[in-house]
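for the writeup, i need someone to sanity check this before i put it in the appendix. the sequnce is what the collaborator sent (i think, or maybe the updated version? ugh). structure was predicted straight from it, no edits. if anything looks off just tell me and ill rerun, i have time this weekend
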Amino acid sequence: MLLPSRTKYRKQHKGRINGRSKRGTYLSFGSIGLLATSTGRLSSRQIESARIVINKCIKRSGNMWIRIFPDKPITKKPAEVRMGKGKGAVEEWVAVVRPGRILYELAGVDDALACKAMKLASAKLPISTKVIIKENECI
């Protein structure tokens, strides 16, 4: 599972997810990518689950790049605990995703197979996505 080796601060504020992504909006490494079309938080488990599906579908041929990293800690307090007494312990790590962000990229794989792999991966994610191919989009 993905998580930072160390951070400057253990806990963060929740923050707001609005607007479009400022970076990571173009295909940099591969020829086919999975583009986020809505906002959301992707946990490290969801990112890993989609990665495994892509690898199984392409049978580890070609190259794959994960363009997001879960660097935001999410805290939770235990069940049935009274209010107060500080912020809860860190439960999971998430990546904040805005529309326009490329999540995964593939290269060296047939376009039809890559499209199928990306569609299977998008089913594992809680945000809406679309598959894009260098210059045009895949349906």
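The chain is about 20% helix and 30% strand. The mean pLDDT is 94.
thx in advance!!
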